[in-house]
Fold this protein.
Amino acid sequence: MDRRGFLKFAAGGTVGLVASPIIWNTLYDAVYWTQNWGWIPRLKKGESQYVPTVSKLCPSGTGFLVRTVGGVPVRTIGDRNNPVTHGAMTALAAAEAELRVSPARLKTPLRRSPDGAYVAISWAEAEKLLKEKTQQAGSSVAAVSGDPTSSINEVISAMLNQLGSSDFYFMPDDEQPAAAAWEAMGGQGRLGYDMEGSDCILAVGAPVLESWGVVAANRSLFNRTHPVDGEATQKLIYAGAVQNNTAAGSDLWLPMKSGTDMALLLGIAHLVIKAGKNGFAAGLGNFADFAAAYTPEKVSGITGVPVERLEAAAKALVSAKKPLVIAGSSLGSGGSAGPVMAAIAINMLLGSVNREGGLLDLPYPVSVVAHATDYRETMRKRFVDYTQAVAAGKAKAPALLFVYAANPVYSLPADSGVKETIKKSGYSVAVASFMSETCEECDLVLPAALGMEAFDDVQTPYGSGRVTYALARPVAKPFADARSAGELFIALAQELKLELGVKDMPELLYKHAYALGAPFRAMMDEGAVHTAKVTLPASPLFYNWEAMRAAASARGAEGDLQVAPVVVLAMGTPQTAIPPFATKVVTDYQLKGRYSVAQMNGATAAKLKVNAGDLVRLVAGNNVEITVVAAIFEGILPDTVSLVAGLGHTAFDEFSKGKGSNVLALTSVCREPGTGLPVWGLAGVKAARA
């Protein structure tokens, strides 16, 4: 066959092949079978329902609707009927359905073997081991909880109290220094903020639209008071070192150097008093004398805020009918009580205490479990005081340590003593939903069901302006072999013959609803949320002069540059890490390759002789060194670098591991003058081109 004959033969064969039905049937069968291989994920078929519940992963307890298909959660969306959040969502709450099946979810109990590796065990083995270790520990038991809004805390503390231990703690958060400040200033209950009733809010160091307080509710309020096509009905003023989302959305931004919150608040107090707001409560006369030294010019030199902006902020507060001043920390933990005391004093001057639109004295949650430690007492205790004492040998390490819904190994500074406490403890148990850095340090890891998989509750998150109560109801079966943490601790207490007064989580939730006068049946059946305004106490507050003056003497962080951390809920929390669903919103201004991004303005970059994209070494006072990528952003003060929190994980999954650096590694624990509180909200660093 010559070349021409071959081509004719090939062409004829091709035509015949195309014309034959055999090849098409074969292709059809191949497509059909490849699409039916067992490992290919399929959408669940069934009835689509929308079930109202509340998030237990979002720190502010966002209310949402869970869309289920055939009983399987596939999506979470805002619940417009929720009286707290009004349909607003946070990125973390929006990712909760995806987080339910995250690769980092714990699937079965894990016990550490003698060689250090984890071995999967059954729940029967885990419960037997848990009972034996608790009985052996006697009164030498300690526990820390990362979820202060849950009634499960009452079960844990009641169990410890009956065993003879008072070592039950909350993880550090923004409420602890605020509670110390409120009590020092004469507050009787919890510090509440009626943001919804205010017409002018000054938030100092508290990113209310990003991570502070009840974030979803704050965002909903901002949208309602700042319509796109109309005049704003509420003025928002924000003071912070970075033009974050709160600063960008505010009506007035006060670009304040990190760590100068106290000076700025004293400067505002000076201007408020000068404007005639001098209806002093007991002890505030000394405060006026103290604030007199903080002239606008002096405060501008300390904080970097222009005089005209300070005066504009003070004028807005004085002219408002219902002004409110809030002080908080950008990290959400490790903050000082001093700025909160100064903010309370300004609210007192403005007549904004125990009044609509101001600071409110809210009641503490009532304990309904027998022998439980009440919320106020737990809030007064400092977990870092305990862990540092154990690490230094000044306190005995517990024979048994429980870590519930918390990741202190990641979320606390290295010198907090947490790792040392876990290592020194006779036996450590982590009850968690995801494999975290803390889980990897513990002897026994128990998989906990998420909020949409078990009964739980959310009691008045910090930052609220009224009493709220919501139930987390199971809308799906627990993932793999996860179990309700509440039922686990109740069962353990029952095995130990301890008295709780409740037999299971539904009964515990019912007792709380009854104590609040909340409609339990509607909450269980329809996802109703209980809200209540409270009768405000008439007792006047007073001014704690000595604590205020001492706190004002605190020194700032040492270093050529100040670190301004930014918390974004899209980065998750220390307990969840970065949600798989949220990776699409991580920008090049937060993470570049495997490096965290350090944003700085042009003047700072010129001083360091670096350009955008250059690698920079940051060395903290604790000798911790991290390498970051420089980015230029003029919305940051000079001599300041901004780093996003939530990166630098060594655990969880491929979405979080090995990405960037943990900004908390740059911080160290120190003590606030006057209050003695452990604080770590500030970090100074030296920087050089890598």
Notes: The radius of gyration is 28 Å.
